[in-house]
Amino acid sequence: MSENLVPPMAAKKDTVLEKHGDKRIDSYYWLNDRENPEVIQYLKDENTYYEKMTAHTKDFQQQLFDEMKARIKEDDESVPYLYNGYYYITRFEKGKEYPIFSRKKGSLTANEEIMFDCNEMAKGKAYFKLSGLNVSEDNKLVSFATDETGRRIYTLQVKNLETGEILADKIPNVNGESVWANDNKTLFYSTKDKKTLRSDKIHKHVLGTDAKKDELVYFEKDETFTVYVAKTKSKKFIVIGSTSTLTSEFQTLNANEPNGKFKVFQPRVRGLEYNISHYNDHFYIVTNKDKATNFKVMKTPDNATASSNWVDVIPHDEKVLIEGIEIFKNYLVVEERSNGLNKIRIMPWDKSGDYYLPFDIETYSAETNTNIDFDTDILRYGYQSLATPYSVIDFNMKTKTKEIKKEYEVLGGKFDKNNYKEERVWATATDGTKIPISVVYRKEMKKDGNNPLLLYAYGSYGYSMEPNFDSTILSLLDRGFIYAIAHIRGGEDMGRQWYEDGKLLKKKNTFTDFIDCSKFMIEQKFTSSKHLYAQGGSAGGLLMGAVVNMAPELYNGVIAAVPFVDVITTMLDDSIPLTTGEYDEWGNPNDKVYYDYMKSYSPYDNVKAQDYPNMLVTTGLHDSQVQYWEPAKWVAKLRTLKTDKKVLYLDTNMDAGHGGASGRFEALKELAKEFSFLLDLEGIKK
Fold first, then answer.
1. Closest CA to 8 of 56, 54, 41
2. pLDDT at residue 658 in the model
3. Cα distances (angstroms) measured from residue 2 to each of 10, 50, 205, 247, 679
4. Catalytic-role residue among 278, 282, 531, 658
5. If DSSP codes are grouped into helix, strand and coil, which group holds residue 172?
């Protein structure tokens, strides 16, 4: 490591930000102009500094990349699924970065029809993503959307699958998804506000007509809501969904009548959340109606959809979170979560007896997979654990037998899941709440406090962190690391209340939970503060920013990926993508109560003169979720105030957005950088 290199120091240009009579001085506000050459130069200077400081790890990064890539089956393909007479397959070819989407008519031995070869489509592009594939009911056309910047702004097009021709219809600035009416010529799609990138409009396009004249079907005026369009599994209804953090509303249209008018299912009521599925002549609704905090299942006739007509199918249970349902001709399948674990419940419509799929360990995740076919006894689901690769399983709900269609291979000949031990342990939070932690490590590991440990968490939006298998983590485990996931409040890991207790004016529970989990891992001698590392991205990057301000002494190193760290400034700027829809998550700082609370934890506002851990901060210039300037400003401020001599790096991907690089192997190069950062701090050189 080159100790003599001087890190770049961004120029201080004070901007006074005032709200509620409170003045904040932001010396780096000017960094929010991506068109300013001085801003671009600063980001490049930080990249150069990072490259020079880590030059000694270049060979190791390449070794890690090669190692992670070697575990992945390059010429791989998905388990085919049958839909409307065709088997659909996604496959990869050796040495290529992008997927190939294909199908076979009627039989897996039929000739392959290549729908899209993304390797050809991505040629000459720094970023490429294909999304929203949707085949018309007559199987002749497919709508698709492409993004070439990483800002999740797509262009919608249509391909004739019989001739291979891309039709002249071309619609920019869409969200990605589109839905065919049953006439095979009418498409419904959503578009974004060009400034905020909020999905706010649903349009209707008829093939062969001028897209500029497409009918505006629905405009969502409430800036806290986003809209999307979908189709029921029964193929009977096209559905417009309007959702915010706490409220939802749906509209339906008979898919055979694309020129008809959408009908509101149940008008929005603040705090009422619901989702709908169609079966026979009824809608089945997953909802929190009647104070069902953990949700329940109700049903209503499809010609009488107001909530006054809804009746219970599965009542509310304070200990069981209902996460979703799958409807089949003969079965209702319910995805549940209890005691922090996934459960899959099978309920025959003929009431011949409910049962649960059996799972043995406590560090697994299981969820329903692709189940498009309505008239089948086969439920396809996925299963994995921290030490068990992902499997796709077909379960016969009638005979109760299962067939493992595929267990994803870990190549290289070195992996054996029996070499690893998985545990679920429970830390006690400051307020006495028990927080689960999923842990995996090599069996020979001793709990003597000398092990390096990477603790990962997210803790926002009710997003549960599943203990999923990740072959890349083996590069840490096999070098002596322990890997752990802290299932902190703010997620929904332990039910809906877990989320409610980690948002708005209870947001600090998320941060103190993570700190308490860190202390627990040290107390139990899994690790020590000399060997403890923390990682989080996006809202998990906010978590990282908060904990390094609150308890920096606990960590030797921290990775904050695309971190949301300038909470007040971002939440006061309703021109930034996503801001208005976030008020129910963080609060609206135009209200002084929320302003004051945010200011008390916002990482950027709470940087102070103290020692910080070694830190790697990453971002993307074209990020539409967390703007690049948040981590850039944060690093600039940390450089002026931190009192230690530990490393601080800002690595900006100048070509990508929130999700990082678009190719499947390019993303591994970014991961190799992160792992080499951790391993270098541990003195592990190979």
1. 41
2. 47
3. 21, 10, 58, 53, 17
4. 658
5. strand
- With 50 as the cut, is the pLDDT of residue 437 above it? yes
Q: Residue 396 corresponds to which amino acid?
A: N
Q: What is the mean pLDDT of the chain?
A: 94
Residue 663 in this model has a pLDDT that exceeds 90: no
C-alpha to C-alpha distance for 603 and 545, rounded to whole angstroms: 5
User: What digits encode the pLDDT tens for the residues 400-409?
Assistant: 999 999 999 9
Q: How many CB atoms are located within 10 Å of the residue 418 CB?
A: 7
Judge contact between 342 and 494, C-beta under 8 A: no
What's 657's DSSP letter?
Answer: B
In this predicted structure, the answer to whether residue 662 has a pLDDT above a threshold of 80 is no
- End-to-end alpha-carbon separation of the chain, Å? 16
Q: Which two tokens stand for residue 223?
A: 């800036």
Check pLDDT > 90 for residue 362: no
Question: Quick one: tokens of 444?
Answer: 């020979």
Query: How confident is the model over 664-677, as pLDDT tens digits?
Result: 788 899 999 999 99
Question: Of the candidates 403, 446, 619, 646, which has an alpha carbon nearest to the alpha carbon of residue 548?
Answer: 646
- Quote the distance between the C-alpha of residue 143 and its chain's center: 24
Tokens 């851990």 correspond to what residue? 613
> What radius of gyration do the chain's Cα atoms show?
25
What secondary structure does DSSP assign to 449-503, as a single string? S-S-EEEE----TT--------GGGHHHHTTT-EEEEE--BTBSTT-HHHHHTTS
Give the start-end residues of each E strand in 220-375: 226-231, 237-243, 248-254, 263-264, 274-279, 282-287, 296-301, 311-314, 321-327, 331-338, 341-348, 355-356, 364-368
Round to whole Å and give the CA distance between 666 and 119. 13
Of the candidate ranges 203-207, 367-371, 527-531, the one whose mean pLDDT is the lowest: 367-371
How does DSSP classify residue 384? E
- How far is it, in rounded angstroms, from Cα 680 to Cα 56? 9
> What one-character DSSP code corresponds to residue 248?
E
Site of tokens 């201080």: 12
Tokens linked to 594: 């929320």
**pLDDT tens readout for residues 621-639:** 876 566 899 999 999 999 9
∠ CA 664-668-670 to the nearest 5 degrees? 120
Q: Which residues contact 306 (CB under 8 A, 6 or more apart)?
A: 266, 300
Q: Which two tokens stand for residue 101?
A: 């989407």
Where do the DSSP E strands lie in 27-124?
81-83, 86-91, 100-105, 112-117
Catalytic option among 475, 538, 624, 676: 538
User: Smallest Cα–Cα separation from 666: which of 23, 119, 103?
Assistant: 119
- Strand 614-620 and strand 648-653: the pairing is parallel
Spatial distance between the Cα atoms of 415 and 279, rounded to a whole number of angstroms: 44
Catalytic status, residue 78: no
CA distance 269 to 285: 15
131 is catalytic: no
> What are the DSSP E strand ranges found in 465-613?
482-486, 532-537, 557-561
Based on the residue annotation, tell me whether 623 is a catalytic residue of this protein. Answer: yes
CA distances from 561 to 49, 541, 616 (A): 18, 6, 8
| DSSP codes joined into one string, 101-165 | EEEEESSTTSPEEEEEEHHHHTTT-S--EEEEEEE-TTSSEEEEEEESSSSS-EEEEEEETTT-P
Mean pLDDT for 358-381 is: 89
CA distance 649 to 559: 10
Per-residue pLDDT tens over the stretch 100-157:
999 999 999 999 999 999 999 999 988 899 999 999 999 999 999 999 887 788 999 9
- Considering only CA atoms, which of 299, 303, 300, 241 is closest in space to residue 273? 241
